[in-house]
Amino acid sequence: xxxxxxxxxxxxxxxxxxxxxxxxxxxxxxxxxxxxxxxxxxxxxxxxxxxxxxxxxxxxxxxxxxxxxxxxxxxxxxxxxxxxxxxxxxxxxxxxxxxxxxxxxxxxxxxxxxxxxxxxxxxxxxxxxxxxxxxxxxxxxxxxxxxxxxxxxxxxxxxxxxxxxxxxxxxxxxxxxxxxxxxxxxxxxxxxxxxxxxxxxxxxxxxxxxxxxxxxxxxxxxxxxxxxxxxxxxxxxxxxxxxxxxxxxxxxxxxxxxxxxxxxxxxxxxxxxxxxxxxxxxxxxxxxxxxxxxxxxxxxxxxxxxxxxxxxxxxxxxxxxxxxxxxxxxxxxxxxxxxxxxxxxxxxxxxxxxxxxxxxxxxxxxxxxxxxxxxxxxxxxxxxxxxxxxxxxxxxxxxxxxxxxxxxxxxxxxxxxxxxxxxxxxxxxxxxxxxxxxxxxxxxxxxxxxxxxxxx
Amino acid sequence: xxxxxxxxxxxxxxxxxxxxxxxxxxxxxxxxxxxxxxxxxxxxxxxxxxxxxxxxxxxxxxxxxxxxxxxxxxxxxxxxxxxxxxxxxxxxxxxxxxxxxxxxxxxxxxxxxxxxxxxxxxxxxxxxxxxxxxxxxxxxxxxxxxxxxxxxxxxxxxxxxxxxxxxxxxxxxxxxxxxxxxxxxxxxxxxxxxxxxxxxxxxxxxxxxxxxxxxxxxxxxxxxxxxxxxxxxxxxxxxxxxxxxxxxxxxxxxxxxxxxxxxxxxxxxxxxxxxxxxxxxxxxxxxxxxxxxxxxxxxxxxxxxxxxxxxxxxxxxxxxxxxxxxxxxxxxxxxxxxxxxxxxxxxxxxxxxxxxxxxxxxxxxxxxxxxxxxxxxxxxxxxxxxxxxxxxxxxxxxxxxxxxxxxxxxxxxxxxxxxxxxxxxxxxxxxxxxxxxxxxxxxxxxxxxxxxxxxx
Lengths: 456, 456
Fold this sequence. Notes:
2 copies of one chain form a homodimer. Chain A is an alpha/beta fold. In chain A, 40% of the residues lie in helices and 18% in strands. Chain A is built from 16 helices and 19 strands. Chain A has helices at 15-26, 54-62, 68-76, 82-89, 119-124, 126-150, 166-178, 187-193, 203-208, 212-222, 236-252, 267-280, 296-304, 316-319, 402-415, 435-453; strands at residues 32-39, 49-50, 96-99, 105-106, 113-118, 154-157, 183-184, 228-230, 259-262, 287-290, 311-314, 329-336, 339-340, 355-361, 367-374, 383-384, 387-391, 394-395, 430-433. In chain A, helix 12 (267-280) links the parallel strand 9 and strand 10 (287-290).
């Protein structure tokens, strides 16, 4: 059984990267290539994205090395010549990485990361780059929408059991935390990323005891300071009465019941009735925690209908970004050996050349528009979004801690125009192409048409 | 940087499993508990599931051990007493696992796996069990639908770049292979699972050369026996003419061009025109490979409209199960210390007791219906679907190799009634509840209502 691969990036690859690399090697093509990473289209209900996943990618790029076992496996495929495999054995990633810092808000077509490296290296990391940035960005974006919908109520990531694998579970915990969640149920994520962990009990706990109140009492005994009692195993109102009884018993011992949790049924009606019951019994400080199928739409729905919920456990639908379970993210060659390049395939535009994203703000500090231009351009007073993170394969900035990124998301989100924050994402921020980029784009396109379609 | 966790299952856990375990420990509750794993509802367009993920889960259960660093981390949470942490330090999984073999077709509500173990052990593995079986089963099911739609044409997994993480990418490669794909682009999966790997070139390869035909020539030189040329970087018809030229050049050297690939545009019209061009030039054996947004619906659509495609690269939409990116899979306590248990939460039924699934066939060998009954029942001549895989924490069967599972899927799929194979999944196989189970279910429900709701 292999241990997978946070630390073994070099085989996280589609075979064609290796076949292309073998041909580049044979052709002695080693000039620098620049690849741009960008999202081609907004999925439904999206009008912004939150960049995430860069930190982990940089660690992987620094550790990119083929191991002996990898090369032995590749040799068995019968595709690769010994000199190419020897070359792979000594390969490191020596390139440059420019990227938006994690937590930056960005829009479709904008390069969020550019790699410039000898073409074999830049090509070999394609799958890794897309995979790592895509899933974290997708979840950070989804989670930020949930935070927005919750209007200040606390959110906890409950997704691990139904994330698409364990690696995804870790990325969901990290990305939702940086997007504004207060923590996760995921213990491994808590350990690895130092994220606060939360959790109390499942229905199975209740049903394993002879009765609900005995289960509540046992739990309050074990965790007198932290008890959140799940009250809907049999009947949520009867459950509330049991919780009130246990709250009284805790009070006699000098403790306070922390909360109750609802996980099913009509959470608007139930939360109102449970709140009333708790308040009538002098338990105004006991919080109501809700879980069960929440995402930004359901949070918005129950709150708009008056639900009395203090915090939400947000699980599966956030953890797989259920309404948009993939982004159309692409990593495309835009320049080779100083020559800007593009493909013409139907309906898929790639902007040529190494680029920069210039952000303009209005007088109130909201984002007015972005301009995608060439890296060499200047557009004062615009902010430039792509920054240099790696030079010659070495990181040139200290890793950011999660709290820094979390604060950036909060600040960035405040700069998003209010009309761009509705859940249906109707209003989009304007993204322009600079005159210089547009001119170069047309020139390259014209050259290709003359050369490739003229000789057909 | 941590190495994640194929081999570190013990922290793949929601915190509440540990808080519940701490309370069970304090209460000296160590009797055997049985948990059932099942899917509560069909997602849109699904009427069957293909069991997958068991092999990896069994490996994890055998290796379930808290490490010193795990216990130190848990200690920092301030929730757990030293005697409980000591207990965790010496914990192994000593339970029984009964399950459907990988590749078995099953239906909603049916237990696909049951764990019986001392309650702490059975509870602690909840997240791991759901996470591992859910994603593999979801992808095997999606991939089987693609295989069905392809009517014998070959399918290759191209999903890795946009799977939800690297772990997911591996599970997608394995699950799609066992469901009938012929291989994957995922090199790491090829190495770990010994799955055939496929792949040739990307658009970036073409654009890095001064012209398309120079790129084709270089690739044919490197891989004269295996060249599949991507023909749509600039214009697919011009690209086909270039490929024909290179095919001629290969013929002069005694080789044959293997194929061409289309990745965009109207693939029905294009594949027909490309096929004609190839045939007119005596290249009837050159295959047309298509990729770009394929899933079972798009495969079915292009084939029904006459596309001339020999093989498909099936990527993102299969790899995230885009139209059903999660299954409502649950792991519920059904028996504790010999006492059948259930919850009553609105709209969520759990069948009590340790169970068996009995499958009945019609005279033509098709599945007629299934009956969910108690483990102790007998219903000859029905086949029983749950088999014992682990006793006292040890595996009692040899691991199955992927080819065996692949053959099982093929056989199982032949037994699915033809009217249950349409992509809209309109017709469902009938699943009954046995009289004994129904009687016990009602008894337990009545007891709970009397005990829990009578005292409210």
